[in-house]
């Protein structure tokens, strides 16, 4: 299957005040690779294609990665 088409790729970030965690779901290859390579996240769910390539990822983190911060 490979990655999602550009028009279908997304990254959704939700803050959960009760747990003080960020819930991140992404189908953007650059974001998938970054979240998998950095030891900052607990992986909750992984979506793979028929070849085993990760094409979707859902993680929870205590602190957003520096490049994800939008309230500077």
What does this structure look like?
The protein has 72 residues and is mainly beta. 12% of the residues lie in helices and 38% in strands. The protein contains one helix and four strands. The protein has one helix spanning 29-37, and strands at residues 11-16, 21-26, 42-48, 54-61. Strands 1-2-4-3 form a four-stranded antiparallel beta sheet, with helices on one face. The chain is globular. The protein starts with 10 loop residues before the first strand and ends in an 11-residue tail after the last strand. The model has no long low-confidence stretch (mean pLDDT 86).
TL;DR?
The chain is mainly beta and 72 residues long. It has one helix at 29-37; strands spanning 11-16, 21-26, 42-48, 54-61.
Low-confidence stretches: none
The gross shape turns out to be globular
Number of strands: 4
Question: Structural class given helices, strands, pairing?
Answer: mainly beta
Note the total helix count.
1
**Distance between the first and last residues' Cα:** 38 Å
| Beta-strand percent range | 35-45%
Lateral strand order in the biggest sheet: 1-2-4-3
N-to-C order of helices and strands: EEHEE
**Mean residue pLDDT:** 86
Oligomer: single chain
Largest sheet: 4 strands, antiparallel
Overall radius of gyration: 12 Å
- Helical content stands at 10-25%
